[in-house]
Amino acid sequence: MHKGQYRFVAGFLLAPVSLYLIFVIWPYIQTIGYSLTDWKGQSQTFKFIGLDNYKALFQDDVFMQAIWHNILFLIFIPVITILLALFFAFMLNAGGRSRAGGVRGVAGSQVYKIVYFFPQVLSLAIVAVLFNAVYRSDGGGLLNGFLIKLGLVDAENPMEWLNEPNLVLWMLVIAVVWHGVGFYLVLFSAAMQSIPRDIYEAALIDGAGRNQSFFRITLPLLWDTVQTAWVYLGIVAMDMFVLVSSMTQNMGAYGGGPDHHSDVMSTVMMRNFQYFGKSGYACAMGVVMLLLTLVLSVVMLRATRRDRVEF
Amino acid sequence: MSAPIKETAAVPAQRTTGTAPARPGSERSEGVVLNAFSHGFLALWALLIVLPLLWLVLSSFKTDAQIGGSAFGWPQHWSLGVFGRAWDKGIGDYFLNTVIVLVFSVPLTMLLGSMAAYVLARYQFWGNRFLYFFFVAGAMFPVFLALVPLFFMVKRLDMLNTYQGLILVYVAYSMPFTVFFMHAFFRTLPTAVFEAAVLDGASHTRTFFQVMLPMAKPGLISVGIFNTLGQWNQFILPTVLMQPQSGDDPERYVLTQGLIQLQQQMGYASDLPVLFAGVTIAMIPMLVVYLSFQRQVQAGLTSATLK
Fold it and tell me: Where does the record place it (chain A) (predicted)?
């Protein structure tokens, strides 16, 4: 390579690499270092305390409970979202009059897609405000109002959806699923349409029914896409900061109520960092989040591994 | 081997008549039932998306007492004044702040991201693979891992609660995905055009800006949409970085942060219509942009994820 070429390469890389180093990579590395100190954030002095933060973490009931909530989210958010999205994508593509089970959409499938996808362009902050209004604890909430009309909820004593320890996580799951299904539906739908028609025709000749062609053809050929969706939903489930911090009762700051029943790792971490000022401790939580993310991605990739089908 | 040939010949005929070979009658009625069934479910979910949103917009015309009273009340008077109040209560500022940040952060993300991706995709040099993984690895780590040191880093640079601070952080955190996607895109572009440009005596920089970048336009649009939506909807970074640092430091909240702030204030002030009007204002540009570029948005977001 010529000298000029080197200069060109270096010139193009300088700005992106330095920005990325300063604001992303260096803080990542620093977090690991700070997690071994008793740093409070206000002063620049801190002591090295080894793994004490981590030991404290595993005795911190709030944080352990938060990990458990993240795990519940990690199971239910992807499963429900993917099943619903697959179901609707199949309905959109195969419910139509097409005989070969999976190519032509139902009438108006484009309109459905436009509507379903819309929540995805809204910010989670908007979703939080919307669902707070829907879940209002008096008759003015859409959910309570509707159930009162049906006679399922007593008008004198409506449900406090976000204050029920056993319900609050599910209420958050509903909001996430509402937000996400459309996106995965469009994703799956595009993948379904790219499956060549002759495969369905061949199956039809062999006497396969609609269900058989879905489970034996569509699903295996969609597997890569489902796997991608799983990873993306896993990231959503590990985060959950916006909804928990702005929809649930404050445990000091950043939601998590009632009585920490909806706390997740991100809200506990932010509370320790900004409200209690325990920076070193919060860094240890960040590291635990990273480790869990890595473990989970390995597990997910292993568990969902299939032979790739080329077509 | 002769039987399959005969059967494939039957397929087009079967398609045109619309009857399946094995069970002609049952297949057709099954289709009708399935069709009604699928339309039922599809319509139900569409209603579950649209009705709550419409209900929220409608609620901004109600009074606070009405909102607390019954979910199904109808607004008494249709006054648009509430939108003006929401704008003055902060939505206008939040809107402006978000736009100021994005006007700089999105183009800068695209420029720096494609520069890095281009060099990594098209030039052989020592450390190339390492740098590529260095960029892409960032996408795997949760942003929470960096938050605490990031806050103090931005503080040391004296950029807390400033536009330039948030812009630089947005650009940095959009790098992994932008580089990853554009890298894949630049690899697919034909080398012949590049060689022709070099033969014609264009410099490397000029080749990039005048030949390669215009060719990468479809990729740039996809990633651009992805980054615009991602940065517009970002919440955790502004929550940490955009807090007033002292009494006379003005609030520079972005829209997402501002809406949550407004939710708290209006809850205390018993003026929920203002909050709902604020949300409506925040939704309108998304709705307009989405409906006008619906195909590109869907394609951009989904292809961006699938790469």
Answer: Cell membrane
